[in-house]
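Take just one protein record:
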Amino acid sequence: MNVNRRSARWIAPIALGVMAVGGIAYATIPDGNGVIHGCYKKSGGTLRVIDASVTNCDKTETALTWGQSGPPGAPGTPGVDGADGASLDFTGTFGVRDDVEIPSRDVGTATVSCPPNHLFQRGSIINVYTPLLQVEADGVTFDSATLTCKWSVRSYNGDVSAHCPGLLAYCVPVR
């Protein structure tokens, strides 16, 4: 019985301490509108942040608020309309293929060119029979003088024998 009385003496102080810490953690800074409230004392320059729903500034302090949103600004001027884009006809899509031999432990680049007035849509690397062929870079270029697209793929062959991967590009006519 003696042990239970000692334990009972500590329950009330512990419970009060937990409630006090919980009350501090529950303070609403900033408030529900995102505003931070503070009190500025002119005679010492001290500033303290308060929970305005619980505390007020003293008579010797000036109330301050910050973090408020101002009124919305005037809308900006509309931008200029862009030019109409080219229309694509997917019914004329066709593939163009190029193969390149990459020697053992070397780098090779294959390039596929779409015919004039066709855009590169997508491509595939084909005839890859080794997991040691690594694509290092690929890119699509457009030549505005000839209106042609090119897709280039640079690969490294880490295998002990040469391989001939191919590129298959799907080109779409532009109307």
User: Anything to note?
Assistant: Residues 29-67 form one domain.
